[in-house]
Amino acid sequence: MLTKIKNELIYLSTLRRILSSLKSINNDESLIITKKIVGYADSSPDSVAIYYDDRETTYRELINGANQYSHWFLDNGLQKGDVVALLMENRPEFLMAWIGIAQVGGTTALINTNLTGHPLNHSLSISGASKVILGKELLENFETTNDSIKSSFQVWIEGSNNNSEYIDLNESLNKLDITMPNIDYDVTNQDVALYIYTSGTTGDPKAATITHRRLRLMLMGFVSAVLPKKTDRVYNVLPLYHSAGGIIAVGLALTTGASLVLKRKFSVNDFWSDVNKYNVTIFQYIGELCRYLLNAPEHKFEKNHNLRIATGNGLRPDIWDDFKNRFKIKKILEFYGATEGNISLINYDGKSGAIGRVPSYLKSMLNIEIVKFDVEKEEPLRDENGFCIPCENGEVGEAIGEIQIDAAGFDGYVDKQATQKKILRDVFAKDDQWFRSGDLLSRDKDGYFYFIDRIGDTYRWKGENVATSEVSHAFQGFSNIEEVNVYGVDLPGNDGRAGMVAIVTKTDIDLENLYNHLKNCLPSYAMPVILRVQKEIEITGTFKHKKVDLVKEGYNPQDVSDPLFFIDNKNRNYINLDTNLYEKIINKDIKL
Fold it and tell me: Considering the entire predicted model, what is its pTM?
Protein backbone atom coordinates (compact mmCIF):
# COMPACT_ATOMS: atom_id res chain seq x y z
CA MET A 1 0.00 0.00 0.00
CA LEU A 2 2.82 2.41 0.84
CA THR A 3 4.45 1.69 -2.54
CA LYS A 4 1.16 2.39 -4.34
CA ILE A 5 0.71 5.67 -2.48
CA LYS A 6 4.29 6.70 -3.25
CA ASN A 7 3.88 5.84 -6.96
CA GLU A 8 0.59 7.75 -7.09
CA LEU A 9 2.26 10.84 -5.66
CA ILE A 10 5.10 10.56 -8.20
CA TYR A 11 2.59 10.20 -11.04
CA LEU A 12 0.39 13.12 -9.98
CA SER A 13 3.26 15.51 -9.26
CA THR A 14 4.86 14.76 -12.62
CA LEU A 15 1.52 15.11 -14.41
CA ARG A 16 1.05 18.49 -12.74
CA ARG A 17 4.41 19.68 -14.09
CA ILE A 18 3.53 18.43 -17.57
CA LEU A 19 0.16 20.20 -17.59
CA SER A 20 1.87 23.39 -16.46
CA SER A 21 4.33 23.08 -19.35
CA LEU A 22 1.47 22.43 -21.78
CA LYS A 23 -0.21 25.62 -20.59
CA SER A 24 2.97 27.58 -21.31
CA ILE A 25 3.04 26.19 -24.88
CA ASN A 26 -0.53 27.30 -25.49
CA ASN A 27 0.06 30.71 -23.93
CA ASP A 28 3.19 31.60 -25.88
CA GLU A 29 3.27 30.55 -29.52
CA SER A 30 6.60 32.27 -30.15
CA LEU A 31 8.65 30.53 -27.44
CA ILE A 32 10.14 27.94 -29.78
CA ILE A 33 12.81 25.49 -28.59
CA THR A 34 15.68 27.30 -30.30
CA LYS A 35 14.95 30.43 -28.22
CA LYS A 36 15.21 28.32 -25.08
CA ILE A 37 18.72 27.22 -26.08
CA VAL A 38 19.68 30.78 -27.05
CA GLY A 39 18.63 31.84 -23.57
CA TYR A 40 21.40 29.77 -22.01
CA ALA A 41 23.91 31.22 -24.49
CA ASP A 42 22.93 34.61 -23.06
CA SER A 43 22.83 33.67 -19.37
CA SER A 44 25.62 31.05 -19.23
CA PRO A 45 27.71 31.63 -22.36
CA ASP A 46 30.83 29.87 -21.07
CA SER A 47 29.05 26.77 -19.78
CA VAL A 48 29.82 23.65 -21.80
CA ALA A 49 26.91 22.71 -24.04
CA ILE A 50 28.52 19.72 -25.78
CA TYR A 51 31.38 17.39 -24.91
CA TYR A 52 32.52 15.56 -28.05
CA ASP A 53 35.68 13.44 -27.76
CA ASP A 54 38.23 15.91 -26.36
CA ARG A 55 36.39 18.94 -27.74
CA GLU A 56 34.27 21.24 -25.57
CA THR A 57 31.66 23.48 -27.21
CA THR A 58 30.24 26.23 -25.01
CA TYR A 59 26.69 27.57 -25.31
CA ARG A 60 28.14 30.74 -26.84
CA GLU A 61 30.03 28.74 -29.49
CA LEU A 62 26.99 26.56 -30.20
CA ILE A 63 24.71 29.53 -30.88
CA ASN A 64 27.39 31.50 -32.73
CA GLY A 65 27.72 28.52 -35.07
CA ALA A 66 23.94 28.21 -35.35
CA ASN A 67 23.66 31.91 -36.26
CA GLN A 68 26.13 31.41 -39.11
CA TYR A 69 23.90 28.63 -40.46
CA SER A 70 20.95 31.03 -40.21
CA HIS A 71 22.84 33.56 -42.35
CA TRP A 72 23.84 30.80 -44.78
CA PHE A 73 20.18 29.79 -45.14
CA LEU A 74 19.01 33.33 -45.89
CA ASP A 75 22.00 34.37 -48.02
CA ASN A 76 21.35 31.45 -50.38
CA GLY A 77 17.86 32.61 -51.24
CA LEU A 78 16.03 30.21 -48.96
CA GLN A 79 12.84 31.38 -47.29
CA LYS A 80 10.61 30.45 -44.38
CA GLY A 81 9.27 26.92 -44.94
CA ASP A 82 12.06 25.84 -47.31
CA VAL A 83 13.76 22.50 -46.62
CA VAL A 84 17.45 21.66 -46.33
CA ALA A 85 18.59 18.02 -46.19
CA LEU A 86 21.23 17.24 -43.56
CA LEU A 87 23.42 14.14 -43.95
CA MET A 88 26.05 14.17 -41.21
CA GLU A 89 27.24 11.91 -38.41
CA ASN A 90 26.99 12.86 -34.73
CA ARG A 91 29.02 15.97 -33.94
CA PRO A 92 28.35 19.54 -32.75
CA GLU A 93 27.99 20.90 -36.31
CA PHE A 94 24.90 18.74 -36.78
CA LEU A 95 23.12 20.60 -34.00
CA MET A 96 24.41 23.99 -35.11
CA ALA A 97 22.93 23.32 -38.55
CA TRP A 98 19.35 22.46 -37.63
CA ILE A 99 19.14 24.96 -34.75
CA GLY A 100 20.34 27.72 -37.08
CA ILE A 101 17.96 26.75 -39.88
CA ALA A 102 14.99 26.29 -37.52
CA GLN A 103 15.35 29.66 -35.78
CA VAL A 104 14.83 31.52 -39.07
CA GLY A 105 11.86 29.37 -40.12
CA GLY A 106 13.54 26.71 -42.24
CA THR A 107 12.97 22.96 -42.07
CA THR A 108 15.80 20.43 -41.82
CA ALA A 109 15.32 16.89 -43.16
CA LEU A 110 17.48 14.65 -40.97
CA ILE A 111 18.76 11.87 -43.24
CA ASN A 112 19.75 8.46 -41.87
CA THR A 113 23.55 8.24 -42.08
CA ASN A 114 23.50 4.49 -42.77
CA LEU A 115 21.63 4.81 -46.07
CA THR A 116 23.09 4.25 -49.51
CA GLY A 117 21.63 3.60 -52.95
CA HIS A 118 17.85 3.37 -53.28
CA PRO A 119 16.87 4.16 -49.65
CA LEU A 120 19.08 7.26 -49.75
CA ASN A 121 17.68 8.30 -53.13
CA HIS A 122 14.18 7.89 -51.71
CA SER A 123 14.81 9.82 -48.47
CA LEU A 124 16.37 12.76 -50.31
CA SER A 125 13.76 12.86 -53.06
CA ILE A 126 10.76 12.99 -50.68
CA SER A 127 12.36 15.71 -48.54
CA GLY A 128 11.47 18.49 -50.98
CA ALA A 129 14.90 20.04 -50.43
CA SER A 130 17.12 21.57 -53.08
CA LYS A 131 20.28 21.76 -50.96
CA VAL A 132 22.03 19.12 -48.90
CA ILE A 133 24.55 19.74 -46.13
CA LEU A 134 26.88 16.77 -46.39
CA GLY A 135 29.40 15.80 -43.73
CA LYS A 136 32.69 14.93 -45.40
CA GLU A 137 32.61 11.52 -43.67
CA LEU A 138 29.52 10.53 -45.69
CA LEU A 139 30.73 11.56 -49.14
CA GLU A 140 30.99 7.92 -50.23
CA ASN A 141 27.39 7.30 -49.15
CA PHE A 142 26.17 10.24 -51.20
CA GLU A 143 28.13 9.05 -54.23
CA THR A 144 25.87 5.95 -54.32
CA THR A 145 22.87 8.10 -55.24
CA ASN A 146 21.60 8.15 -58.81
CA ASP A 147 22.26 10.87 -61.38
CA SER A 148 18.82 12.38 -60.84
CA ILE A 149 19.57 13.07 -57.18
CA LYS A 150 23.05 14.40 -57.88
CA SER A 151 21.74 16.80 -60.50
CA SER A 152 18.79 18.06 -58.45
CA PHE A 153 20.70 18.88 -55.24
CA GLN A 154 23.25 21.60 -54.59
CA VAL A 155 25.75 19.90 -52.28
CA TRP A 156 27.59 21.77 -49.53
CA ILE A 157 30.42 19.81 -47.90
CA GLU A 158 31.00 20.38 -44.17
CA GLY A 159 34.60 19.56 -43.27
CA SER A 160 37.81 19.72 -45.25
CA ASN A 161 37.63 17.90 -48.59
CA ASN A 162 39.46 17.70 -51.89
CA ASN A 163 36.32 17.28 -53.96
CA SER A 164 36.02 20.39 -56.10
CA GLU A 165 32.70 19.13 -57.47
CA TYR A 166 30.89 20.28 -54.34
CA ILE A 167 30.84 23.61 -52.45
CA ASP A 168 32.99 24.08 -49.36
CA LEU A 169 30.50 24.96 -46.62
CA ASN A 170 33.10 25.89 -43.99
CA GLU A 171 34.66 28.47 -46.26
CA SER A 172 31.27 30.13 -46.64
CA LEU A 173 30.33 29.91 -42.95
CA ASN A 174 33.60 31.48 -41.82
CA LYS A 175 32.71 34.65 -43.70
CA LEU A 176 29.30 34.98 -42.06
CA ASP A 177 28.23 36.94 -39.00
CA ILE A 178 27.92 35.12 -35.66
CA THR A 179 24.94 37.23 -34.54
CA MET A 180 21.34 36.26 -35.20
CA PRO A 181 20.15 37.75 -38.50
CA ASN A 182 17.23 40.17 -38.48
CA ILE A 183 14.03 38.65 -39.90
CA ASP A 184 10.75 40.46 -40.48
CA TYR A 185 8.47 37.50 -39.73
CA ASP A 186 7.61 35.28 -36.76
CA VAL A 187 8.57 31.63 -36.37
CA THR A 188 5.82 29.94 -34.31
CA ASN A 189 4.62 26.60 -33.02
CA GLN A 190 2.85 25.85 -36.28
CA ASP A 191 5.98 26.05 -38.44
CA VAL A 192 7.80 22.83 -39.32
CA ALA A 193 11.23 22.52 -37.69
CA LEU A 194 12.31 19.02 -38.76
CA TYR A 195 11.55 16.01 -40.86
CA ILE A 196 12.51 12.85 -39.00
CA TYR A 197 12.35 9.60 -40.91
CA THR A 198 10.98 6.26 -39.76
CA SER A 199 13.60 3.51 -39.59
CA GLY A 200 12.46 1.74 -42.75
CA THR A 201 12.10 -1.68 -41.13
CA THR A 202 8.87 -2.25 -43.08
CA GLY A 203 9.68 -0.56 -46.38
CA ASP A 204 11.06 2.74 -47.58
CA PRO A 205 11.58 5.37 -44.84
CA LYS A 206 8.76 7.89 -44.37
CA ALA A 207 9.35 11.48 -43.29
CA ALA A 208 7.46 12.48 -40.14
CA THR A 209 6.55 16.15 -39.76
CA ILE A 210 7.91 17.72 -36.56
CA THR A 211 6.49 21.19 -35.95
CA HIS A 212 7.97 23.52 -33.33
CA ARG A 213 4.93 22.74 -31.20
CA ARG A 214 5.57 19.02 -31.48
CA LEU A 215 9.22 19.56 -30.56
CA ARG A 216 8.10 21.26 -27.36
CA LEU A 217 5.49 18.59 -26.61
CA MET A 218 8.00 15.77 -27.11
CA LEU A 219 10.37 17.39 -24.63
CA MET A 220 7.78 18.48 -22.11
CA GLY A 221 7.13 15.06 -20.61
CA PHE A 222 10.78 14.09 -20.40
CA VAL A 223 12.06 17.29 -18.86
CA SER A 224 9.19 17.21 -16.35
CA ALA A 225 9.96 13.59 -15.43
CA VAL A 226 13.77 13.70 -15.41
CA LEU A 227 14.10 17.24 -14.00
CA PRO A 228 17.64 17.81 -15.34
CA LYS A 229 19.86 20.25 -13.49
CA LYS A 230 22.48 22.54 -15.02
CA THR A 231 25.13 20.31 -13.46
CA ASP A 232 23.83 17.20 -15.27
CA ARG A 233 25.65 15.57 -18.14
CA VAL A 234 23.52 13.62 -20.61
CA TYR A 235 25.31 10.77 -22.42
CA ASN A 236 24.05 10.26 -25.97
CA VAL A 237 25.35 7.54 -28.28
CA LEU A 238 22.15 7.45 -30.36
CA PRO A 239 22.02 8.99 -33.84
CA LEU A 240 21.06 12.65 -34.01
CA TYR A 241 18.90 12.00 -37.09
CA HIS A 242 16.35 10.14 -34.95
CA SER A 243 13.95 11.43 -32.30
CA ALA A 244 15.40 9.56 -29.29
CA GLY A 245 18.96 10.83 -29.75
CA GLY A 246 18.29 13.95 -31.77
CA ILE A 247 15.39 15.46 -29.82
CA ILE A 248 14.96 13.85 -26.41
CA ALA A 249 18.60 13.48 -25.35
CA VAL A 250 19.55 16.80 -26.92
CA GLY A 251 16.57 18.55 -25.38
CA LEU A 252 17.16 17.16 -21.89
CA ALA A 253 20.56 18.85 -21.98
CA LEU A 254 20.34 21.96 -24.13
CA THR A 255 16.91 23.23 -23.05
CA THR A 256 17.85 23.06 -19.35
CA GLY A 257 21.38 24.46 -19.42
CA ALA A 258 22.93 21.02 -18.80
CA SER A 259 25.70 19.43 -20.91
CA LEU A 260 25.37 16.90 -23.72
CA VAL A 261 28.07 14.23 -23.90
CA LEU A 262 27.90 13.31 -27.58
CA LYS A 263 29.42 10.20 -29.11
CA ARG A 264 29.77 9.33 -32.78
CA LYS A 265 28.45 5.83 -32.12
CA PHE A 266 27.89 3.31 -29.33
CA SER A 267 30.78 1.22 -28.04
CA VAL A 268 30.42 -1.43 -25.33
CA ASN A 269 34.13 -1.13 -24.58
CA ASP A 270 34.06 2.66 -24.20
CA PHE A 271 30.78 3.03 -22.33
CA TRP A 272 31.80 2.82 -18.66
CA SER A 273 35.11 4.57 -19.28
CA ASP A 274 33.17 7.45 -20.86
CA VAL A 275 30.69 7.54 -17.97
CA ASN A 276 33.67 7.93 -15.64
CA LYS A 277 35.65 10.35 -17.84
CA TYR A 278 32.78 12.79 -18.42
CA ASN A 279 31.11 12.30 -15.02
CA VAL A 280 27.85 11.29 -16.75
CA THR A 281 24.66 11.56 -14.68
CA ILE A 282 21.94 10.75 -17.26
CA PHE A 283 22.06 8.03 -19.94
CA GLN A 284 19.73 7.96 -22.95
CA TYR A 285 19.30 4.30 -23.97
CA ILE A 286 17.65 2.01 -26.46
CA GLY A 287 16.86 -1.43 -25.06
CA GLU A 288 19.33 -3.24 -27.29
CA LEU A 289 22.19 -1.17 -25.86
CA CYS A 290 21.27 -2.30 -22.35
CA ARG A 291 21.39 -5.92 -23.48
CA TYR A 292 24.82 -5.41 -25.05
CA LEU A 293 26.11 -3.92 -21.79
CA LEU A 294 24.61 -6.73 -19.75
CA ASN A 295 26.28 -9.33 -21.96
CA ALA A 296 29.68 -7.63 -21.65
CA PRO A 297 32.38 -8.65 -19.14
CA GLU A 298 32.51 -6.81 -15.83
CA HIS A 299 34.04 -3.33 -16.03
CA LYS A 300 35.86 -1.57 -13.21
CA PHE A 301 33.60 1.49 -13.44
CA GLU A 302 30.24 -0.25 -13.90
CA LYS A 303 29.25 0.19 -10.24
CA ASN A 304 31.47 3.16 -9.41
CA HIS A 305 29.72 6.00 -11.21
CA ASN A 306 27.37 8.98 -10.75
CA LEU A 307 24.58 7.83 -13.09
CA ARG A 308 21.30 8.76 -11.45
CA ILE A 309 18.86 8.12 -14.29
CA ALA A 310 18.75 5.91 -17.38
CA THR A 311 15.93 6.98 -19.69
CA GLY A 312 14.88 5.49 -23.01
CA ASN A 313 12.69 2.89 -24.63
CA GLY A 314 12.80 -0.80 -25.48
CA LEU A 315 14.26 -2.14 -22.21
CA ARG A 316 12.69 -5.60 -22.17
CA PRO A 317 11.21 -7.07 -18.96
CA ASP A 318 13.53 -10.11 -19.12
CA ILE A 319 16.63 -7.96 -18.48
CA TRP A 320 15.12 -4.96 -16.68
CA ASP A 321 15.96 -5.93 -13.09
CA ASP A 322 19.29 -7.53 -14.01
CA PHE A 323 20.36 -4.31 -15.75
CA LYS A 324 19.26 -2.07 -12.90
CA ASN A 325 20.79 -4.22 -10.16
CA ARG A 326 24.09 -5.12 -11.81
CA PHE A 327 24.97 -1.55 -12.74
CA LYS A 328 23.42 0.08 -9.67
CA ILE A 329 21.16 2.35 -11.73
CA LYS A 330 19.13 4.41 -9.27
CA LYS A 331 16.20 5.12 -11.58
CA ILE A 332 15.02 3.77 -14.93
CA LEU A 333 12.60 5.99 -16.83
CA GLU A 334 11.16 3.97 -19.70
CA PHE A 335 8.97 5.72 -22.27
CA TYR A 336 6.87 4.77 -25.26
CA GLY A 337 5.96 6.77 -28.34
CA ALA A 338 6.33 7.05 -32.09
CA THR A 339 8.00 9.93 -33.91
CA GLU A 340 5.00 10.34 -36.20
CA GLY A 341 2.32 9.45 -33.66
CA ASN A 342 0.24 11.03 -30.92
CA ILE A 343 0.62 8.43 -28.17
CA SER A 344 3.04 9.09 -25.36
CA LEU A 345 3.61 7.08 -22.19
CA ILE A 346 6.30 7.42 -19.52
CA ASN A 347 6.91 5.03 -16.65
CA TYR A 348 7.35 7.73 -14.03
CA ASP A 349 7.63 5.48 -10.98
CA GLY A 350 9.98 2.89 -12.53
CA LYS A 351 7.75 -0.21 -12.26
CA SER A 352 9.76 -3.08 -13.71
CA GLY A 353 8.88 -3.90 -17.33
CA ALA A 354 6.22 -1.23 -17.80
CA ILE A 355 6.27 1.48 -20.48
CA GLY A 356 3.90 3.81 -18.67
CA ARG A 357 0.66 4.10 -16.76
CA VAL A 358 -2.77 5.65 -17.09
CA PRO A 359 -4.77 5.27 -13.86
CA SER A 360 -8.46 4.44 -14.21
CA TYR A 361 -9.57 7.85 -12.94
CA LEU A 362 -7.72 9.59 -15.82
CA LYS A 363 -8.47 7.09 -18.59
CA SER A 364 -11.30 9.14 -20.09
CA MET A 365 -9.11 12.27 -20.20
CA LEU A 366 -6.21 10.72 -22.13
CA ASN A 367 -6.19 9.60 -25.72
CA ILE A 368 -4.78 6.06 -25.59
CA GLU A 369 -6.75 2.84 -25.97
CA ILE A 370 -5.96 -0.81 -26.75
CA VAL A 371 -8.33 -2.60 -29.14
CA LYS A 372 -8.74 -6.25 -30.03
CA PHE A 373 -6.67 -7.21 -33.06
CA ASP A 374 -6.76 -9.86 -35.79
CA VAL A 375 -3.14 -10.93 -36.24
CA GLU A 376 -3.76 -12.74 -39.54
CA LYS A 377 -5.57 -9.84 -41.21
CA GLU A 378 -3.37 -7.31 -39.38
CA GLU A 379 -6.32 -5.09 -38.55
CA PRO A 380 -8.48 -4.34 -35.49
CA LEU A 381 -11.52 -6.53 -34.90
CA ARG A 382 -14.97 -4.96 -35.26
CA ASP A 383 -18.23 -5.80 -33.47
CA GLU A 384 -21.66 -6.31 -35.06
CA ASN A 385 -22.08 -2.53 -35.27
CA GLY A 386 -18.76 -2.06 -37.05
CA PHE A 387 -16.95 -0.50 -34.10
CA CYS A 388 -13.65 -1.56 -32.54
CA ILE A 389 -13.62 -3.59 -29.32
CA PRO A 390 -11.59 -2.41 -26.31
CA CYS A 391 -9.33 -5.01 -24.74
CA GLU A 392 -9.81 -6.28 -21.22
CA ASN A 393 -7.01 -6.05 -18.68
CA GLY A 394 -4.24 -8.49 -19.58
CA GLU A 395 -5.46 -8.87 -23.17
CA VAL A 396 -3.11 -8.01 -26.05
CA GLY A 397 -4.25 -5.62 -28.75
CA GLU A 398 -3.20 -2.68 -30.92
CA ALA A 399 -2.54 0.63 -29.20
CA ILE A 400 -4.37 3.55 -30.80
CA GLY A 401 -4.44 7.27 -30.00
CA GLU A 402 -7.46 9.53 -30.50
CA ILE A 403 -6.82 12.38 -32.91
CA GLN A 404 -8.32 15.37 -31.15
CA ILE A 405 -8.66 18.31 -33.51
CA ASP A 406 -8.07 20.94 -30.85
CA ALA A 407 -5.00 19.16 -29.41
CA ALA A 408 -2.93 19.40 -32.61
CA GLY A 409 -1.11 16.26 -31.52
CA PHE A 410 -0.98 14.40 -34.83
CA ASP A 411 1.08 15.88 -37.64
CA GLY A 412 1.71 12.61 -39.46
CA TYR A 413 4.02 12.31 -42.45
CA VAL A 414 5.07 14.61 -45.25
CA ASP A 415 3.40 12.07 -47.57
CA LYS A 416 -0.31 12.68 -46.92
CA GLN A 417 -1.30 9.30 -48.37
CA ALA A 418 1.01 7.60 -45.89
CA THR A 419 -0.59 9.66 -43.12
CA GLN A 420 -4.07 8.51 -44.11
CA LYS A 421 -3.00 4.86 -43.87
CA LYS A 422 -2.17 5.39 -40.20
CA ILE A 423 -5.63 6.77 -39.38
CA LEU A 424 -8.37 4.45 -38.14
CA ARG A 425 -11.91 5.77 -38.58
CA ASP A 426 -15.30 5.00 -37.02
CA VAL A 427 -13.53 3.41 -34.07
CA PHE A 428 -15.95 3.90 -31.16
CA ALA A 429 -18.29 6.44 -32.77
CA LYS A 430 -19.20 7.53 -36.27
CA ASP A 431 -16.52 9.74 -37.89
CA ASP A 432 -14.05 9.61 -34.99
CA GLN A 433 -10.37 9.25 -35.92
CA TRP A 434 -7.54 7.41 -34.14
CA PHE A 435 -3.84 7.00 -34.90
CA ARG A 436 -2.75 3.38 -35.42
CA SER A 437 0.50 2.76 -33.53
CA GLY A 438 1.33 -0.51 -35.25
CA ASP A 439 2.26 -1.91 -31.83
CA LEU A 440 0.69 -4.60 -29.69
CA LEU A 441 0.38 -3.63 -26.03
CA SER A 442 -1.35 -4.92 -22.92
CA ARG A 443 -2.53 -3.18 -19.76
CA ASP A 444 -2.89 -4.53 -16.21
CA LYS A 445 -5.54 -3.76 -13.59
CA ASP A 446 -3.45 -0.92 -12.13
CA GLY A 447 -3.25 0.88 -15.49
CA TYR A 448 0.36 -0.04 -16.33
CA PHE A 449 1.05 -0.62 -20.04
CA TYR A 450 3.44 -3.26 -21.41
CA PHE A 451 4.98 -3.51 -24.88
CA ILE A 452 4.39 -6.91 -26.49
CA ASP A 453 5.45 -6.70 -30.13
CA ARG A 454 5.30 -4.83 -33.41
CA ILE A 455 2.40 -5.71 -35.69
CA GLY A 456 3.92 -7.82 -38.44
CA ASP A 457 6.42 -9.21 -35.97
CA THR A 458 3.71 -11.18 -34.22
CA TYR A 459 2.58 -14.00 -36.50
CA ARG A 460 -0.06 -16.75 -36.33
CA TRP A 461 0.90 -20.43 -36.42
CA LYS A 462 -1.12 -23.53 -35.48
CA GLY A 463 -4.05 -21.26 -34.65
CA GLU A 464 -2.04 -19.34 -32.05
CA ASN A 465 -0.45 -15.89 -31.99
CA VAL A 466 3.32 -16.04 -31.61
CA ALA A 467 5.19 -12.96 -30.37
CA THR A 468 8.70 -12.67 -31.78
CA SER A 469 9.79 -11.23 -28.43
CA GLU A 470 8.71 -14.45 -26.70
CA VAL A 471 10.74 -16.58 -29.09
CA SER A 472 13.75 -14.25 -28.84
CA HIS A 473 13.65 -14.49 -25.07
CA ALA A 474 13.78 -18.29 -25.25
CA PHE A 475 17.23 -18.11 -26.87
CA GLN A 476 18.59 -16.18 -23.90
CA GLY A 477 20.67 -18.40 -21.70
CA PHE A 478 21.76 -20.76 -24.49
CA SER A 479 25.52 -20.49 -24.76
CA ASN A 480 27.35 -18.98 -27.73
CA ILE A 481 24.31 -17.34 -29.35
CA GLU A 482 24.97 -13.61 -29.68
CA GLU A 483 21.90 -12.31 -31.52
CA VAL A 484 18.56 -13.59 -32.77
CA ASN A 485 16.08 -12.13 -35.26
CA VAL A 486 12.66 -13.82 -35.30
CA TYR A 487 10.12 -13.57 -38.13
CA GLY A 488 7.38 -15.58 -39.83
CA VAL A 489 7.53 -17.25 -43.27
CA ASP A 490 4.97 -19.07 -45.41
CA LEU A 491 5.11 -22.86 -45.63
CA PRO A 492 3.05 -24.44 -48.44
CA GLY A 493 0.13 -26.48 -47.16
CA ASN A 494 0.03 -24.74 -43.79
CA ASP A 495 -2.11 -21.91 -42.48
CA GLY A 496 -0.44 -18.88 -40.97
CA ARG A 497 3.32 -18.37 -40.89
CA ALA A 498 6.00 -20.64 -39.49
CA GLY A 499 8.63 -19.25 -37.16
CA MET A 500 12.06 -18.67 -38.68
CA VAL A 501 15.05 -17.38 -36.73
CA ALA A 502 18.28 -15.84 -38.00
CA ILE A 503 20.97 -16.38 -35.37
CA VAL A 504 24.55 -15.22 -34.90
CA THR A 505 26.79 -17.62 -32.98
CA LYS A 506 30.31 -17.42 -31.60
CA THR A 507 31.03 -21.07 -32.46
CA ASP A 508 29.24 -24.11 -33.83
CA ILE A 509 26.24 -24.97 -31.69
CA ASP A 510 24.76 -28.30 -30.67
CA LEU A 511 21.44 -28.25 -32.53
CA GLU A 512 20.01 -31.13 -30.53
CA ASN A 513 20.70 -29.29 -27.28
CA LEU A 514 19.25 -26.13 -28.77
CA TYR A 515 16.06 -27.98 -29.72
CA ASN A 516 15.65 -29.34 -26.20
CA HIS A 517 16.42 -25.93 -24.66
CA LEU A 518 13.74 -24.24 -26.78
CA LYS A 519 11.29 -27.06 -26.13
CA ASN A 520 11.61 -26.43 -22.42
CA CYS A 521 11.03 -22.69 -22.87
CA LEU A 522 8.32 -22.47 -25.51
CA PRO A 523 4.91 -23.96 -26.25
CA SER A 524 4.96 -26.30 -29.23
CA TYR A 525 3.31 -23.79 -31.59
CA ALA A 526 6.04 -21.22 -30.87
CA MET A 527 8.97 -23.54 -31.63
CA PRO A 528 11.06 -22.12 -34.50
CA VAL A 529 10.63 -24.26 -37.60
CA ILE A 530 13.63 -22.96 -39.58
CA LEU A 531 17.00 -21.65 -38.42
CA ARG A 532 19.38 -19.51 -40.47
CA VAL A 533 22.91 -19.06 -39.16
CA GLN A 534 24.45 -15.70 -40.10
CA LYS A 535 27.78 -14.00 -39.46
CA GLU A 536 25.94 -10.83 -38.46
CA ILE A 537 22.38 -9.55 -38.32
CA GLU A 538 21.61 -6.41 -40.28
CA ILE A 539 20.19 -3.62 -38.15
CA THR A 540 18.87 -0.13 -38.70
CA GLY A 541 20.68 2.96 -37.46
CA THR A 542 18.54 2.80 -34.31
CA PHE A 543 19.51 -0.81 -33.60
CA LYS A 544 16.30 -2.41 -34.82
CA HIS A 545 16.54 -5.72 -36.62
CA LYS A 546 15.67 -5.65 -40.31
CA LYS A 547 13.14 -8.36 -41.10
CA VAL A 548 11.57 -7.50 -44.45
CA ASP A 549 14.57 -8.56 -46.55
CA LEU A 550 14.96 -11.79 -44.57
CA VAL A 551 11.32 -12.68 -45.18
CA LYS A 552 11.75 -12.00 -48.92
CA GLU A 553 14.94 -14.09 -49.08
CA GLY A 554 13.08 -17.04 -47.59
CA TYR A 555 14.69 -20.42 -47.01
CA ASN A 556 15.57 -21.84 -50.42
CA PRO A 557 19.15 -23.16 -50.03
CA GLN A 558 19.85 -22.26 -53.66
CA ASP A 559 19.09 -18.59 -52.92
CA VAL A 560 20.47 -18.35 -49.37
CA SER A 561 24.19 -18.91 -48.85
CA ASP A 562 23.91 -19.11 -45.04
CA PRO A 563 23.48 -22.52 -43.38
CA LEU A 564 19.80 -23.46 -42.98
CA PHE A 565 18.23 -25.99 -40.62
CA PHE A 566 14.71 -27.44 -40.36
CA ILE A 567 12.92 -28.74 -37.30
CA ASP A 568 12.83 -32.53 -36.81
CA ASN A 569 10.30 -33.13 -34.04
CA LYS A 570 10.51 -36.92 -34.35
CA ASN A 571 14.21 -36.95 -33.45
CA ARG A 572 14.04 -33.77 -31.30
CA ASN A 573 16.64 -31.97 -33.40
CA TYR A 574 17.26 -29.50 -36.23
CA ILE A 575 18.53 -31.01 -39.47
CA ASN A 576 20.27 -29.57 -42.52
CA LEU A 577 17.81 -27.92 -44.91
CA ASP A 578 19.23 -28.94 -48.28
CA THR A 579 17.72 -28.82 -51.77
CA ASN A 580 16.13 -32.23 -51.40
CA LEU A 581 14.38 -31.30 -48.14
CA TYR A 582 13.38 -27.94 -49.56
CA GLU A 583 11.63 -29.65 -52.49
CA LYS A 584 9.69 -31.84 -50.06
CA ILE A 585 8.58 -28.75 -48.15
CA ILE A 586 7.48 -26.95 -51.31
CA ASN A 587 5.65 -30.09 -52.55
CA LYS A 588 3.84 -30.34 -49.20
CA ASP A 589 5.40 -33.70 -48.42
CA ILE A 590 6.43 -32.51 -44.97
CA LYS A 591 3.72 -32.46 -42.33
CA LEU A 592 4.04 -30.30 -39.25
Answer: 0.80
